[in-house]
TrEMBL record:
<keyword id="KW-0150">Chloroplast</keyword>
<keyword id="KW-0934">Plastid</keyword>
<keyword id="KW-0035">Amyloplast</keyword>
<dbReference type="InterPro" id="IPR011835">
    <property type="entry name" value="GS/SS"/>
</dbReference>
<keyword id="KW-0328">Glycosyltransferase</keyword>
<dbReference type="GO" id="GO:0019252">
    <property type="term" value="P:starch biosynthetic process"/>
</dbReference>
<keyword id="KW-0809">Transit peptide</keyword>
<dbReference type="Pfam" id="PF13692">
    <property type="entry name" value="Glyco_trans_1_4"/>
</dbReference>
<protein>
    <recommendedName>
        <fullName>starch synthase</fullName>
        <ecNumber>2.4.1.21</ecNumber>
    </recommendedName>
</protein>
<dbReference type="GO" id="GO:0004373">
    <property type="term" value="F:alpha-1,4-glucan glucosyltransferase (UDP-glucose donor) activity"/>
</dbReference>
<dbReference type="InterPro" id="IPR013534">
    <property type="entry name" value="Starch_synth_cat_dom"/>
</dbReference>
<dbReference type="Pfam" id="PF08323">
    <property type="entry name" value="Glyco_transf_5"/>
</dbReference>
<dbReference type="GO" id="GO:0010021">
    <property type="term" value="P:amylopectin biosynthetic process"/>
</dbReference>
<dbReference type="GO" id="GO:0009011">
    <property type="term" value="F:alpha-1,4-glucan glucosyltransferase (ADP-glucose donor) activity"/>
</dbReference>
<keyword id="KW-0808">Transferase</keyword>
<keyword id="KW-0750">Starch biosynthesis</keyword>
<comment type="pathway">
    <text>Glycan biosynthesis; starch biosynthesis.</text>
</comment>
Length: 490
């Protein structure tokens, strides 16, 4: 395959999907492919140059003019679509009433499928020669549908293919059946969207249609792929997933090793922190731990295990499990740092924990990229008790920094954190098989016992974690195989 066209929508620069959209295209470009990313122009991006192209699209009876902007970054063409519904939404990309969000996604997908014809990147358009679109989650799941209904059903773009990536199937673009009327599709396509919900009758489901129309489907881990086929993990789409099992693949996300690398991490350049490698792990991590303790006002002790949590404060991330385990945790000779923002009651809980246990608990309410990096470098243990986790990135960051993960064995956490085997000297961390405080306490207890009493085994865990190839270059090779299958095996 000599070139690809990569379609992604950048939903957030903070979450895992934003990391994927930013890193995967560049990794594919490094493998010799021509790659384009298409993004709604939510804000004023200084690097985006107006291409002078204007197109009009009708959504729910209203015309919207779409303008094309372009930037070339790290071997990738970034095309920004500017239109009134997208303006000034960079801090509120999910905002608005449900019908407004759907209309924005309809406009985006209608315009994006035509970008290779109209955006002169580097002076030339891509055309429809050797193209594979990659769409992400329900927000761009309409693109495979429009590709088929508007083009392939009419003898156009016959060699263009689409891949739909499932990052989180819990969000599906559900709405009333009447939503179909604003999608501007032939009537016989309605059946692809209509889904029966035992609790609420029939509804319109964008993800369902995208899964059926896409040539290939990727989930972000093998574990999550398996969970999607179950009644509990499929969120009502398990039957469709199983019917399309032949076109599913599971690929664990990579990490951006330019940003998440203790050897070059810019957030470790100052304030007594230091960069380190696997060879300088002992000295470097000890210094980062002491710097983190000082910055947070904790007692500077090298012998006390420092446990970190970084994530959204919501039910999915298992914060309630940590809360239930807090009486046990605070009775141990440990320090705990929790960084996150989310549900107001959980934010208040972090503040309360810190107030009640000032000698060993810190709750950083809000989000700080710098502090996330510093916790990852300075902590000994990363706790991830997520109820479900399609892939997870924080456990990958942790292992790259020599920080040992303790995780609930679901989705990508199960795939990436091999349980420690003290007899064989293998494994990367500790896992627990049920989302409750007792199981987490058991796993964390074994972890702390190893930290205190088996230093050689502990260092082996750290070194094995840091020795892995967690880069996007490896993940891109696996994606390339899927794109080849989408192109030639159908």
């Amino acid at each position: 395959m000599s070139s690809l066209w990569l379609l992604s929508v950048l939903l957030s620069v903070k979450g895992g999907l934003g990391d994927v959209v930013g890193a995967l295209p560049k990794a594919l470009a490094r493998r010799g492919h021509r790659v384009m990313v298409v993004i709604p122009k939510y804000g004023d991006y200084a690097e985006a140059r107006d291409l002078g192209v204007r197109k009009r699209y009708k959504v729910a009876g209203q015309d919207s003019e779409v303008s094309y902007f372009h930037s070339y970054i790290d071997g990738v063409d970034f095309v920004f679509l500017e239109a009134p519904p997208f303006r000034h939404r960079h801090n509120d990309i999910y905002g608005g009433e449900r019908p407004d969000v759907l209309k924005r996604m309809i406009l985006f997908c209608k315009a994006a499928v035509e970008v290779p014809w109209y955006a002169p990147c580097g002076g030339t358009i891509y055309g429809d020669g050797n193209l594979v679109f990659i769409a992400n989650d329900w927000h761009t799941a309409l693109l495979p549908v429009y590709l088929k209904a508007y083009y392939r059903d009419n003898g156009l773009m016959q060699y263009t293919r689409s891949v739909l990536v499932i990052h989180n199937i819990a969000h599906q673009g559900r709405g009333p059946v009447d939503d179909f009327n604003i999608m501007d599709l032939p009537d016989h396509y309605m059946g692809h969207f209509k889904l029966h919900d035992p609790l609420g009758g029939e509804h319109n489901n964008v993800f369902a249609a995208g899964l059926k129309m896409a040539d290939r489907v990727v989930t972000v881990s093998h574990g999550y792929m398996w969970e999607l086929k179950t009644v509990e993990g499929g969120w009502g789409l398990h039957d469709i997933i199983n019917q399309n099992d032949w076109k599913l693949d599971g690929i664990v996300n990579g990490i951006d090793t330019a940003e998440w690398n203790p050897a070059v991490d810019v957030h470790l350049h100052s304030d007594d922190y230091t960069n380190y490698t696997r060879d300088t792990l002992d000295i470097g991590k000890r210094q980062c731990k002491a710097a983190l303790q000082r910055e947070l006002g904790l007692q500077v002790r090298d012998d006390v295990p420092l446990i970190g949590f970084i994530g959204r404060l919501d039910h999915q991330k298992g914060v309630d499990i940590i809360a239930a385990a807090m009486p046990w945790i605070t009775q141990q000779d440990v320090q705990l740092v929790m960084l996150g923002t989310g549900r107001p009651d959980l934010e208040d809980m972090l503040r309360r924990f810190e107030g009640e246990h000032r000698d060993k608990v810190r709750g950083w309410v809000g989000f700080s990229v710098r502090m996330a990096h510093r916790i990852t470098a300075g902590a000994d243990v990363l706790l991830m008790p997520s109820l479900f986790e399609p892939c997870g990135l924080n456990q990958l960051y942790a292992m790259a920094y020599g920080t040992v993960p303790v995780v609930h064995a679901v989705g990508g956490l199960r795939d990436t954190v091999a349980p420690f085997d003290p007899f064989g000297g293998t494994g990367l961390g500790w896992t627990f098989d049920r989302a409750d405080a007792g199981r987490m306490i058991d796993a964390l207890g074994h972890c702390l016992n190893t930290y205190w009493n088996y230093k050689e085994s502990w260092r082996g865990l750290q070194v094995r974690g840091m020795s892995q190839d967690l880069s996007w270059d490896h993940a891109a090779e696996l994606y390339e195989n899927v794109l080849v299958k989408a192109k030639y095996q159908w």
